[in-house]
Structure formats: C-alpha cells, structure tokens
Amino acid sequence: MPASGPSWPPRSVLGGWSTMADHRRTIALTTVLAALVLVSTVAAPMASARPAHEIPVRDVSDANLAEPTADGWEEVPASDVPLSSAPSSVPNADDTTVETVDVQAVRTDQRLYVRLEWQDATRDMNANSTREFADAVAVQFPANTSSRPPIAMGGPDNRVNVWYWSGATGTQELLAGGAGSTTPFQNPAVEANATHQGTGGNATWTVVYSRSLEAPSENRTDLRTDGDLDVSFAVWNGSNGERSGQKAVSEWHYYPFGGGPEGPPYETLLWTVAGIAIVAVIGVTSFGIYRTRGAE
Amino acid sequence: MSTDQQDDQGDEDTLVNVADGVDHQVAMVMDLNKCIGCQTCTIACKNLWTEDGGSEYMYWNNVETKPGEGYPRGWEDSGGGWESEEHSDRSPGEIPDEEDYGRAWEFNHEEIMYEGSDEPLRPRDGAEWGPNWDEDQGAGEYPNSYYFYLPRICNHCTHPSCVEACPRSALYKRQEDGIVLVDQDRCRGYRYCVEGCPYKKVYYNTVSKKSEKCIFCYPRIEGEGPDGETFAPACAEECPPQLRLVGFLDDEEGPIHKLVNEYEVALPLHPEFRTQPNVYYIPPFAPGQHTEDGETVDIDRIPRQYLRNLFGDGVDEALDTIDAHRQRVRQGGESELMELLQDKNPAKQYRLEVFDDE
Ligand code: SF4
Ligand code: SF4
Q: Where is this protein localized, as stated in its record (chain B) (predicted)?
C-alpha cells in the first residue's frame, strides 16, 4: 500500500475539490436512484395487483353466470377472503368452522353477479327437526352507498342490505339497522343458485347471487355506483349449530366500481405520475450532463 | 327488557313483586294432591293450539309422572335459566332432540282395520320413548313405592330467560298481564329460547320454522270467545277435579295471592333456575310408609329431599302449615286455608276480571 496518504475516505466526500470523473459518477448515481424510485412506485401496485380489501370485479357487457358451474366463472379472478367468528352475545359465538370464502364478481351492463365458494363437508339443507340448522351464506352492502355502516348488521341511521341464502329457507333479502333488527323484504329482488360438490374435507358450497344494478326499491343498494362499493360476507355451518350471531364473518371489503374495463382511476393516475417522473428525470439528467460538459 | 327488578315494586299499591314494566301478573296454582293424571288438560290444550303441521310433538301443557324423566326426557338437566339472582348471566342450555320429546308413532291401524290382520294394535317400529313412557313408574320399593303427577305449562316467569335468550327480541313479556309470547313476525327460528328456558317450555315448529309456546290462552282471558265471555285457560277449565286456580298474583283479594304470599303453601317448581315462575304448586301429600305387615308408620313415603329438590326448601314449611290447618279442621276448628284449597266456587277459582276497569 502506497504511503502517499489515506485512500479512504474518498476526497470527494471530504469535499474541497472534485474531478470530472466524480461528476460523471454523481450523474450516474442520480439516474440509477431515480430509476429505482420510479420502478418501485410503478411496479409495487402492479406486483401485489390490488390493495388488501379490494375484491376485483370483471366488467363485461353481457354474461350468463347465474349458475355456480357456468363456464364463464373460470376466467374471473377470485379473492380469498378470510373469515373469523363474529363478535356476538349469543352462546358459542366463537365456535365457527369456516375460515375463508372465495369471492368472484362480475358486473354486466344490467346485473351484478357474486359467486362465493367455501369448504363445508356436510350439506345441511334442512331445519326440519328441533336440533337441525341449515348452512347459509350472506353478502352485506350498505343500503345507502354514501357511507360505510357498522360491520355488525349496520346501525339505525346507517342500514345494510343483505343478500341471504340458506339451505332451509332459500333466498331472502334483508334490511338491518343493527344486530337483532334484521327484517326480510316481502319479495327478494336478488336471485341465488347454490350447489354442494365433492365429498369429505374437499366438499364445497358454491352460491351465486345476482341482482339488477338498479335498486328495485328504497332501502336496497344502488349498484350503479361509480365509487368503491363496500361489501362483506358471512357463512354459517348448520351442522355446527351456527345461526344468528354465531357465524364466520369478513371485514368490510370493497368492489372497485370506479373504473371501467381499463381498470380503476388510481392506476391511471399512477401511470401518469410515473410518466411525468420519467420525463423529468431524463430531462434533469440530460441537463446535468450537458451543463457538466459545457463547464469543462 | 329489563328484568332486574327485585325490591322496587312495579305497582305502588301492592307488595307483590311483578316484573319491571308489567302492570299485573297472571298466575296459576295447581294442587298436586288432586291430579289424577287423566291428561284432559293436555288434550284440551292440544286440540286448541297444537294440531297443525310441525307442532305434532308439542305439548304446551303436559302431565308427567314424578319421579320420572319428564317431557322432554331429562328436561330438568337440560340447562337454561340464570346464574345468579342478579339475572345478568344466563346459564347455557341445550335443545332437546326429537327422541327426547318423543316422535309421533305410526300404528298398524291400516293392517288391522282394512287388511284383516289379527296382530294386536301397536306402534309400527321405533317406539322406544315418548311422553309418559315412564308413566306411573315412580320410585320406591313395594310396599312403599310412590309417584305423583306433575302438570306443567309455561310459567310466564317474572325473569323469563327465554326472553333474554332471543337476540331478536322476538319473545316478550306483555305489559298488561305478564304473559310471555313469541312474536311470529320477528322469530327467525334460532331456538335460543328453546335452549334458554330451563323448563323446556318453548318449542320449535318444524314446519313454520319458528318457535311457539303456551300463550296462557290469552284470547280466552281477553273474552275473545263466541259470546265475548272471559274464560280461564282451557287446561284449567277442562280439568275434571278442577285443581287449578287462575288469576293475578297481585290481586291481593284472590286465592292465589293468599296461597302464595300469605300462607306460603303454593310453591314454584325448581326455584333454583331463578326465572321466578308464576305457576305455583301445592306440594303432594302421601300416606306414611307401610311396614311388611301393612302397618302405617310415621315415615314420609315421598322422600322429603325429593320434594325439596323440586320445590325448594319452602316445601317443609308448606307441608307443615297445611298439616296444621288440616288438624285444626279435623278437630272442629275453622281454616281459611282449607276452604281455599277446597273451594269449588268458580267465581273465586278464576279471577280474571278484577283489573278490567283500569
Ligand atoms: S317457563 Fe320458560 S318459556 Fe315460560 S316464561 Fe319461563 S323461561 Fe320463558
Ligand atoms: S286435567 Fe287436571 S287432573 Fe287431569 S291431568 Fe290435567 S291437571 Fe291433572
């Protein structure tokens, strides 16, 4: 090692003077950094596809998806929505068995289709004897989409519109303004079709709900909304005695109804920002290089 | 509904403890010494209220042999009621299954009546339990075996755990007379009331998918009958020995108040469930035990502890009081209590119009 002086730290860092090589290095570093920032900003949302509580909705002009086994469902992205026991004062409220529900959604020009699939080894279709309870599933929307109601069946001023299907009662449409206030609509505007497939631990229920986008009456969720639509899910396992507040529920999620088929607006926004950033970085970099060279 | 009222009386001019928010409380006293187990009450009730599909297995009024499993089988150990006198925490309960109630059996009527079969008339198969399967079985060894009949309806409790159990407030205790009812429009068939009642006196209708229970024949006591007359509940009116007194607990001139609160000889069933029933029982007397030679000795035939288990510790004093009054009358004395227990005057036996003018 030469004894001419310390080789570290580099002189440029110590300040005082710099060379042309130092300038070049600075510009290169800046460019790399800018590129990294750009990549992370743009790529991160692309990689994780969507925020945790977003449930993708495929927009198509028309589709025949009312049946759980309809072909079209294969192309529709699914979300694994985690479920946990609902907080409730009923006995055994924390004893629920279903831990996740697969959710798919398609919006046509006319209707919203929601497909739910979950594992349940037994097909409990009846409540015909004293101890028998049926399997059931529900989708909850704010009755009025302008604000998000309390998750547990809404509140008195902020009600929820619930699509409910059970093996024993079939399809019901409910309005609730807090736990214990559930009231069925006289005639459900929602349609549901259900099928139980497979055996043992791999057996699943699949239920498809659909309803016209336009709210058929007051107190029903208007699905023509342009913003995000809040939605949550609940599943009951009848053979485990689950009913009422003893149920597996999700948190509030949302359908990103804001964008058309090209995707929601924030993505467009991100791309725009990214584009401006690229242009700016290139501009600044070129200007830097130009000035450095010019100064020589 | 708040059910925590204990000392603070609902009605200012009575000392009788009725539930918060309830004006008057219907009540019934049944004298177990008079019941012959004829089931006329059961059938009167069934014909009136539980003949439709889905309610075949229900007996809003049932009469069971004690000691015995009862209806539904094992109901006394099926949980429900309250953990403490504060009435804040309920005890968990279980929903009885079909077999515990007893399914409706199919008989071989067809074969015998139309197909010339000479086999005896009998249930087809699966007849392994039913209401009163253990009728008249009782307990004890000859010559000291014993049993008695226990007619049961909903107790229209002052602290009804069935009401508290319902997350939808479908059950309620009505203000005018404390009758406990199930609002059929609100019920969604969750059956928390069925498991929450320690007497298992709410039933799930397997066709309507809603819960049902004894309504204390409220249309009859409201005078909804053909001629606008008031009638006591059918189980009481139809009883051949007329062992039921019907009225209001807070009617201080009536026999129920006297038997329950003054003489304290009418007792609630299983007070330890803490729902404070409004059906009361005059506990049963039985002849003393017999020796091998047929001599009567002064030992209780029905073990006193068994009666305490059913009616609480008050049973000792109740039996002593009745005994004392009985002796008094035997010796030519007078006793209002004995008159009350023997009174056949319907005007006193059923006092349902005392608060009509309010
Ligand atoms: S007996 Fe049972 S059903 Fe009747 S009021 Fe009491 S708790 Fe309710
Ligand atoms: S009708 Fe009277 S005597 Fe006959 S079983 Fe009923 S309560 Fe007992």
A: Cell envelope
Cα angle A50, A54, A59 (rounded to 5 degrees) comes to 90
| CA nearest neighbour of A232 among A253, A247, A213, A211 | A253
Q: Please report, for residues A2, A3, A9, A17, the alpha-carbon distance to residue A6 in angstroms, rounded to integers and kept in the order given.
A: 9, 8, 7, 16
Chain B CB contacts of A130 under 8 Å are 95-98, 101, 191, 194, 203-204, 206
A171, part of any domain: yes
Note whether A110 and A92 are same-domain residues.
Answer: yes
User: Which has the minimum average pLDDT: B212-226, B275-289, B336-350?
Assistant: B336-350
State how far the Cα of A209 lies from the Cα of A191, in Å rounded to an integer. 6
For the CA of B39, the nearest atom of ligand 2: 5
Instruction: Pick the residue from chain A with its C-alpha nearest to B100.
Output: A130
Look over chain A and give the mean of its residue pLDDT values, rounded to a whole number.
84
ipTM: 0.89
User: Which residues, including other chains, have CB under 8 Å from residue B159's CB and lie 6 or more apart?
Assistant: B3, B19, B82, B87, B274, B275, B276
User: Cβ separation of B168 and A89 shorter than 8 Å?
Assistant: no
User: How confident is the model over B29-34, as a mean pLDDT?
Assistant: 98
Which of A99-108, A188-197, A260-269, B86-95 is the least confident region? A260-269
Residues spanned by the domain of A122 = 58-255
For chain B, domain boundaries: 26-349
Q: Please count the other Cβ atoms lying within 10 Å of the Cβ belonging to residue B273.
A: 22
Q: Can you give the pTM of this predicted structure?
A: 0.84
In tens, the pLDDT along A164-211 reads 999 999 999 999 999 899 999 999 999 999 999 999 889 999 999 999
- Tell how far CA A27 is from the center of its chain: 41
**Among A129, A169, A180, beta carbon nearest to B168:** A180
Q: What pLDDT is stored for residue A225 in this prediction?
A: 84
Longest dimension (CA), chain A: 97
Instruction: Using CB atoms, pick whichever of B167, B204, B209 lies closest to residue A90.
Output: B167
Cβ–Cβ below 8 Å for B188 and A244: yes
Task: Answer for the pair B61, B153: CB distance below 8 angstroms, yes or no.
Answer: yes
Rounded Cα gap, residues A176 and A173, in angstroms: 10
A276 vs chain B: nearest CA distance in angstroms? 57
Of B97, B169, B209, the CB nearest to A131: B97
CA-based nearest distance A120→chain B, Å: 21
Asked if the model's pLDDT at residue B163 lies above 60, the reply is yes
Radius of gyration of chain B (CA): 21
Q: Give the residue among B182, B18, B200, B240 at the shortest CA–CA distance from B95.
A: B200
Contacts of A182 in chain B (CB under 8 A): 168, 188
Residue A36 in domain: yes
- CATH code, residues B26-349: 3.30.70.20
Name the residue of B149, B245, B282 whose CB sits within 8 Å of the most ligand 2 atoms, as the mutation to test its pocket. Answer: B149
Query: Does A294 contact B at CB distance below 8 Å?
Result: no
Question: Do A279 and A158 belong to one domain?
Answer: no
For residues A273 and A251, membership in a common domain is answered with no
